[in-house]
């Protein structure tokens, strides 16, 4: 189990859900993990779970939408482990509304976490990756970054934006050895989905070819590939892990 041996991975929003699954999986593959989240109790829980399995992890409380927090998170990774090899921009929030119903505050909140967050965290991490001759940035977009869906105005805009950001960062930093890729999961069994009423979820359950939601670990494995050197020729890619949702 050494696909990420000696790598340092910073994972935002890793207190629960997909972020936690990636933290556990990356640790099992030999990475040192910087667990970061706005929720301290959740983040500490992930660190505890990693250490229980014999892994090495620290927690840094950071709001990805705040520049100083993003800078502090990356600085803490460098202070503790010497470098940053992998950044996963995973933290995300959702407001289920169409444009007329969305308040300006809701729009700014969703875009702030989902799109400005990856910008700020990548901006903080890229100089550190450059210093070491490269790295891997993975941004968690969504099927909502690929297609239109009802009542997802701010969320879909943010997730489409993430793909644009990934593609342009891939162009800008390939020559520095920094690879940048997006993952577009379909619906997953995480606390995010658990907070949505079942009548809103039901159509999505039937809309993929397996007629079920993904377990977060099923998506985490695709991130493991993109984080590892196995994906050395992969950059600017948009990987759907959606049970065929966008194929139908
Ligand atoms: N759950 C799904 O069905 C689904 C589908 C496609 C894509 N996604 C995306 O996958 C990613 C992970 O989603 P999840 O389902 O695990 O979500 P989740 O709500 O279960 O977990 C998200 C984590 O992000 C943290 N967070 C929220 N705001 C933050 C902020 N400002 N700064 C730092 N951390 C913050 C939360 O505290 C939480 O620990 C998100 O980007 C989400 O948009 C989720």
Question: How would you describe what is shown here?
Answer:
The protein has 248 residues and is of the alpha/beta class. The chain has a single domain (8-241), classed as Rossmann fold (3-Layer(aba) Sandwich). It is 46% helix and 15% strand. The protein has a 7-stranded parallel sheet with strand order 3-2-1-4-5-6-7, sandwiched between helices. Helix 1 runs parallel beside helix 2. It binds nicotinamide-adenine-dinucleotide. Nicotinamide-adenine-dinucleotide binds next to helix 1 and helix 6.
The third-level CATH topology is: Rossmann fold
> At the fourth CATH level, what is the homologous superfamily?
NAD(P)-binding Rossmann-like Domain
- Report the strand count: 7
Helix content, binned percent: 40-55%
What is the N-to-C order of secondary-structure elements (H for helix, E for strand)?
Answer: EHEHEHEHEHEHHHE
The CATH architecture can be named as 3-Layer(aba) Sandwich
What is the element layout, followed by pairings?
Layout: E1 8-12, H1 17-28, E2 32-37, H2 40-52, E3 57-61, H3 67-81, E4 86-89, H4 104-131, E5 135-140, H5 153-173, E6 178-185, H6 191-194, H7 198-206, H8 216-227, E7 238-241
Parallel strand pairs: 1-2, 1-4, 2-3, 4-5, 5-6, 6-7
Helix pairs in contact: 1-2, 1-8, 3-4, 4-5
The protein binds nicotinamide-adenine-dinucleotide.
Features:
single chain; 248 residues; Rossmann fold; 7-stranded parallel β-sheet; globular; binds nicotinamide-adenine-dinucleotide
């Amino acid at each position: 189990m050494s696909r990420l041996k000696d790598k340092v991975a910073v994972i935002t929003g890793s207190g629960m859900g997909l972020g936690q699954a990636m933290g556990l999986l990356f640790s099992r593959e030999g990475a040192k993990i910087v667990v970061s989240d706005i929720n301290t109790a959740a983040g500490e829980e992930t660190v505890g779970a990693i250490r229980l399995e014999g892994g090495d992890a620290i927690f840094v409380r950071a709001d990805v939408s705040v520049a100083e927090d993003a800078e502090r998170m990356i600085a803490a990774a460098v202070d503790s482990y010497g470098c940053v090899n992998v950044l996963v921009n995973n933290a995300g929030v959702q407001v289920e509304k169409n444009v007329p119903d969305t308040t300006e505050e809701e729009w700014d909140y969703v875009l702030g976490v989902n799109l400005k967050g990856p910008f700020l965290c990548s901006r903080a991490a890229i100089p550190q990756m450059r210093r070491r001759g490269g790295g891997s940035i993975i941004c968690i977009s969504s099927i909502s970054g690929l297609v239109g869906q009802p009542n997802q105005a701010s969320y879909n805009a943010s997730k489409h934006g993430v793909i644009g950001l990934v593609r342009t960062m891939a162009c800008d930093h390939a020559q520095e050895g920094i690879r940048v890729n997006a993952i577009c999961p379909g619906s997953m069994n995480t606390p995010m989905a658990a907070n949505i009423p079942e009548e809103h979820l039901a159509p999505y359950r039937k809309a993929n070819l397996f007629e079920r939601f993904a377990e977060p670990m099923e998506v985490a494995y695709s991130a493991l590939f993109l984080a590892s050197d196995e994906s050395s020729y992969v950059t600017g890619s948009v990987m759907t892990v959606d049970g065929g949702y966008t194929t139908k």
